[in-house]
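Run folding on both entries below.
>entry_1
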Amino acid sequence: MAAVALGLALAASPVSAVAAAAVATGSAVALLGTPRLGAVVAVLLALGAAGGHLRLSALDAPAGRIRDGAPVALRAELVTPPRPGRFGSSAEADVSSGRLRGTRLLIRAPAWGPFPRGVRAGEELALSGRLGALAAEGRSDFDDHLRRRGVAGELALERVSATGRRRGGLAGVLDGMRRRAERAVAAGLAPSDAALLRGMVLGQDEGIDPVTREDFRASGLAHLLAVSGQNVVLLVALALPLLLLAGVAPRGRLLVLAGLIAIYVPLAGAGPPLQRAGVMGLAGLAAVGASRPASRWYALLLAAVVTLAWNPRSAGDVGWQLSFAAVVGILLVGVPLGAVLTRAGMELMPDRSRRMVRVLADGVAISVAATLATAPLLAHHFGTVPLAGLPANLLALPAVAPAMWLGMVKAALGQLGLPGVAVPAAPAAAALGYLRWLAERFADLPAGQLSLTLGSPAQVLGAYLAIAAAAYGLSLVARCVPGDHHEVAARWRRLSRSRRVAVTLALVLLFAGATAAALERPRPPDRLTIRFLDVGQGDATLIQYPDGTAVLFDAGPPEAGVARLLRRAGVRRLDAVVATHASRDHHGGLLDVLRRFEVGLLLDGGDGTADPAFRAVLREAASRHIRRVPATPPLRVSLAGGRLLIDVLSPPPRPPGPPPDDPNPRGVVAIVSSGGFRLLLSADAESEALLPLRLPDVDAMKLPHHGSSDPGLPEVLARLRPELAAIEVGLNTYGHPAPSTLAALRRARVPTYRTDRQGTVTLTVDEAGLRVGTEH
């Protein structure tokens, strides 16, 4: 079975398949001395490769009907709900009419022509636009990702309307079940909690805000937001006791559990990890009677064969790889480690606590094994390994199962027509709040992630060999070191119950105290501190006064996750937020900031814009009763008891009429001062807007418009005479910062710092003067 799975995985590369067949044959002969077995391995591998090649040909056939750039009008049924992106939204859809019938397309809708409001998976749409062919395999990582998902091409959307029809058949039945489950799971929960629970139970993570998603990824808890084997295990663990209580016979229990898995997998999206989990679950149920350890490996190999036979390209999917690596690690390391921990725990605990010991031991062992097994792949694909993942997952154990079970019960009640609010929302909200808190705190740990890049498969293999060698070495050391743990356990059991309770309680309190200290939020700085935040190609500047006062100028694009950077800086509350102008790379992250932090004042530099994203920021401020003041002079904002001042110099009030097409020249220009220190912040307003102003000498300045070319910059620098300058800039195609701007700064002898090269730049002001620290 392993040879068939390998052949399927290598089906896209005949050369690799032939090489693998030769290596496998030679290995079988060398290790076992049986040429016949080597021949069988080679034949099975070849059959797997041949079958995979035929399956790939069938999957790729629809792509041959895509004519690049051709205009089309067609009807299609949405497979996924529209997902917002940087420049619009996108969704996958199966064409239901015309010559492309049965073809899956990625529909790209521009920001100015989005999908109909509230459209959902399963609905039919009338579409028109231009087709786009995918790049050749291996030319584009994103196109290869689409190809693995069965997408044959793209459609650049021009017009769209809902037909009012839904897809029928089994898919339509599942759509209805999914809609009922969505409503039931969300019932009684706040929108953020509902989105998180839908992601955990149904795999629908599109409603989870980017900052929360990034927190879960950085903390090593991202697997909780993607339905996987854990969901299948918890589903069985939830249903099995109920079936036992109902007196269902063993064979009936197996059939019911198999039916639940068969329904849940497509209901939750049927992604590659869940496909693997579903097949393994079904194979495991079938092997229950055998009670052989080898059955676990057969189930895993069967899952590999089934998922790869359905789509041989699944082997290239990161989720598929991580899922299989985690299961292999659990079987190789987790099972024996769990047994060792269980034996050790049972020697220390009384008989009535043994069930709890077994659960805790298995939880620790599985977390350790899965973390070790996936680390090399994470380093290969993402360049980082979440060191915080192991303790985060251990601390998450008490909340994961209750949250999942409550969500599954709510989804089941929804299928029966009962309201999801029949299940109290408070326990689920508490569990979700705890998980969100864990993700935030572990994502913020300074050493929570290890930057490690394994660029080639050979390096990944080397990392796995190193982990295996280390594990083997530890096992040898453990065997060679004489232990007196039996005597220690006996002494522990001879203690009175009250003493055991007291010692256990003391250890628990010590652990809780150490954990709380490690996860405590950073404190605000004890000196005036200015942070030019690294938000990529965008602007976000944070000013913090020693008494905890904090002011934020802009928040970068939404994907930058500036809320996380504010947490790491020790921000609890924002006394003022300045929205300098309507530009996505400046105001894009403000909506999330207003939702996550208490804000005292919003200085509105929108200039009457009709930009929908900026208007959403204003609506959010109004809903939270945040005081809003137009950011036009003359305006002075006094904070920290008058020790921190914001003086708005520009723009003047706008005359009647529509707002200008280019908002940059009318971006907010302000002087932030404290004592003798002055800082100029001018958003994207360049010399054309700055030179008419009365500009004072300043100690520091942020270069306007990410350091773009500005002929008047030398005169601005001559009037401001800054001691240092910061350029908030990221990877871009605009040529920022411009060579002429950098040359002007050099001629003016202004030390300059760039966030694209040095990360967040921190300026500290005290009696000794200005001190600069950089992230890189």
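>entry_2
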Amino acid sequence: MVGPRLVAELLLALPHGAPAVDEPDFARDMAPLLRDSCCDCHAGKEPEAGLRLDLVSDEAGARATAGVWRKVRDKLRRKEMPPPDAPAADATLLAAAQRWLDARLGAGPGAWPLDPGRVTLRRLNRAEYGNTIRDLLDVSLRPEERLPADDVGYGFDNIGDVLALPPLLLEKYAALAEEIATAALPGPELRASKARRVEAEAMDSTLPDRYGSDLASLYSAGAVFTTVTLPRDGDYVVRARMSGDQAGPEKCRFTLRAGAAELERGEVACERPDFVEREWRGALHGGAQKVAVAFLNDYYEPKAADHGERDRNLLVDWVEVEGPLDPFPPTRSEKRLFPCGAGHDHVRDCAPALLRQLASRAWRRPASEAEVAPLVALVDDALAQGDSLNEALRLGVAAVLVSPRFLFRAELDPRPDDATQLHPLTGFELASRLSYFLWSSLPDDRLSRLAAEGKLADAAVLADEARRLLGDARASALVENFAAQWLQLRMLATAAPDPTLFPDFDEPLREAMRLESELFVEAIVREGRPLATLLDAHFTFLNERLAQHYGLDGIRGDRMRRVPVADPARGGLLGHASVLTLTSNPTRTSPVKRGKFVLERLLGTPPPPPPPGVGVLDESPAAAQALPLRERLAQHRADPGCAACHAKMDALGFALERFGPTGLWRDQDGPHPIDDHARLPDGRDISGSSDLKRVLLEDDALTRCVAEKLLIYALGRGATDDDLRALHVLVDRYAGRSPSFEELIVDLVGLDAFRRRRGEAPPASSPAKESR
């Protein structure tokens, strides 16, 4: 059998010609390090960490496994390999290997070419759907609230491969399209005046008996009422036909009400069979309105000599609401849809142009005449059948919104089956990538115009547009949809601290925790602060409830406001109650969850899933009293299958132990004093959150992690090995400094992965493997 060391030596003996001294060469530069320091562990059928390095013999083989060498370079850069318990690598061999890795994985003339990859046809997720409807039609509906939650892939809910369209969801889209079209184009029912009369026998009463089949007899201090649905806010007349059984010194008195408001108060002087109509004119809100007539001055004297003077009753025959009486102005949606003037006869002639303009905006690229023709025919047929213009146009609008051209973001390949054909995105495809990245919505008029003019192909123009979109209020979607998922802030909604142990935790506190982190990240994005501010900030956002939770005075009211942070341990995300709560268990902190959060969300190095059969930590009260959490976790780590991952996670989590399960600072955990010292896998000792933040900011791992998460979110797919190589080159350009979100985003949209794509590999081939 040929051993791994002999395999590595054979690599050196293979003929490779005579490369120039400065030209990188695998056999000369990389193979010696593999022979001396790597192949003893990373070779054979069961290599360490599943990484096998003994199968590559030349440059072609190395190129085919580019992702492996990216991981090797990362380990060497972090000085994680060779491990501390192994002999140190020869400095000369290490330098040569690093030169080869930097050359092949870099951006110079010796670098391997990058594949921009491809993106699966993407359905709009529910946030994108709601934002797109808002910006397209300016309706007040929030249709996204009626859609189910989207599946998540790679940590985000905008990943093309998981955004399926099952039949039930398609039915939901069809129903929503009709509802949205009706809201955008109200029909005659909102403009025509209509009388809505309700007879007394059909009305409800506060009294148990009516004493009359066609009249409501209010024999005591009671009322009759009904609910009418008004089409819109406007001017209305409310009438009531009444009479009275008069008795006593006063005439029958009444009040006419709509909802909680009193419309009219007066008296009814007549007696049956005579009736009088009383009315009120004024403004009412649209929607369901409860209209009531109440009897105010009941009188009953059973011993009166005159039988007609014994009982005073109010009789109600009917109630009527007429309106709206005022002209109905065009809605915001109509103004947007009808540039030639809503409500005019000549709008009918504009229908084809209107539908083409709407379809082009909704489909995010020019709609052809052939695509618009069926929409026009649909509207013409409805008009021929007597529908009003708005009713007919609703059909066209609904058809636009239920079209796959709207529900999906399509990027077309000239040769979709040829994975070797790389091509730039069209201007409209690039505009959609940019706007949905930063706004979670469709391109605005300026971005669409630049796309039509072909100017987005200019990298400088694209960079300027990225900066413009980031400065717009709609860029808050980047925090709501990217940051909230990257930092797992959405999981705070399901956090459930034990109410017995944490009785002060309530919904206002939960909401304030979430808002603190979201406003904090948004400030860093909008103010151009370096990414390092995420971990080491001197400001945050608090209201009175959250300030009390932190033990701070001087902040009053529910409004979140910016405040300075004096305590360095509290500054930054790792001091936010949101992060500390969602990474805790209901009854205690979890160094494992907190360490995993740091590795996965801030360093981009998630631990592997736990092996099957891993033991469960003893959570009984007796165990918690007997041993501190640190010692119980140490017993758990004694299992060799758990030790490797827990050595990383637990150390990072222990540094945050002074923050309790809901983020409160503490010195004791029950009977046990807090110990927040930790030893990192590389042998460094840290103490507390301030030391942890310092270590996290010593290299560019945070920048690389944020860059990778942003690219995944922007592209709607996992990062390939070539993507990660491109990100390494990009981050290296920052030369160890921390860029701002804006700088990083502008650089990301300039990458080939964002601006270009390729076809799909034939079924017999394997696409680029998605990797972390």
